[in-house]
Amino acid sequence: MARWSSAGSRCSWRRLAIFSLTCLLIFQLYSFFSRVGKEVENMKHLLALHPVPLRQLEQVEQMILLPPHGLRHPHKINLNDEFLNSSSRARNIFFPREAIDPKTDLDNNGHHCYPGRIWLDTDGNPIQAHGGGILFDERSSTYYWYGEYKNGLTYRANGTGTARVDVIGVGCYSSKNLWAWKFEGIVLAAEERNETHDLYKLNVLERPKVIYNKKNHKYVMWMHIDDATYNKASVGVAISDSPTGPFEYLYSLRPNGFDSRDMTVFKDENGMAYLIYSSLRNKEIHITSLNEDYLDVTDKMVRALVGQHREAPAVFKHEGIYYMVTSGCSGWAPNEAMVHEAESIYGPWETIGNPCVGANKEFRVATFFAQSTFVLPMPGGASGWFVFMADRWNPSDLRDSRYVWLPLSVRGRKERYIGVPLWSRVSIFWHEKWRIPTRRD
């Protein structure tokens, strides 16, 4: 009787274990399909708001490149080498001759972006706003694009040998739709004669960014200021009563005593503003808050991405999480972008990978042969969508550097993407042609 009782007991325990595992599996499957159902409903809601643009923007668009005619060994072509070779037969891949012209393209192509093409303003001239950023002015419901005005001859600087154009100033363009841009003029001009001035034409003015201060009603511009040898490594500050200038240059400084090269500014929803810059000769990123009038830094500063040698920071925020796109340090040669995230602007910052999706591998590891400069919330109210702005530098003719604008999407930390393949939570999608959604879409 004892043996039968023992066997029956073991059998009961097995049945109980199998029953428990079955219940657990059913619960897990129910939870999984519930989450999938919620995500599908969320996606349907977003697609109901923007049915066509979102479907198009998230499509993975591949790129197949035919080798340029006449190459002896076309299978051995190195796109990085071809990009830096101004006489390459592959030049048109990176710097196509076609232009985006708002005067002629409006009826035919309707507000489409073509990354890498010449982009003309409403007067028919190539836009000169390199290394720039965009301010949306709530008072006028207008976008203002500020950037380096490089419409001059490219030459090699004495001492460094780097390609450069004499400083002309900061160009400003205005638009209601982020596609047709009106030239508003040079809103901060170079100094032609005073060799001791920060803005003297033989010095360096790069990456201007403008934010608006609601307390003093001033438009504040921050920029990278340097000498011809890149040893000054400072930031400059200018102010204006109007988004179209003129801006009054105030001074330069080394934030908290540290050298500053590639930089950006970020204004949070609560009105706090921050300066983010490459420091210690690009070995790390520093983040410091600005004071109430945005004209100086505070004592609060943190070091991020220590030892990672990152530059060209572009900072944005989604659902309480801060994100930063950076590039590596390789001169004019393109390199792989990385995205970093943090729950606080002061970190800690975690690197979450290369965001580039589509095209081909060589384009993805070269950030589509461009370098980050700014990330702008996508108009139209689509949550989690942004415009990634980058420069495709042309070191042989800097004024012919191009703009690579592409859609960037961010998924919540707790979301599980149900598509295939499973790419980064922050994704920049390659498109040879795409349209920025508007509220009318």
From TrEMBL:
- State whether keyword Glycoprotein applies: no
Arranged from A to Z, the UniProt key words for this protein are:
Glycosidase, Hydrolase
Reply yes or no: does the keyword Metal-binding apply: no
GO biological process terms, semicolon-separated: carbohydrate metabolic process
Q: Name one Pfam family in it.
A: Glyco_hydro_43
Q: Which GO terms describe its molecular function?
A: galactan 1,3-beta-galactosidase activity
Provide the protein name.
Answer: Galactan 1,3-beta-galactosidase
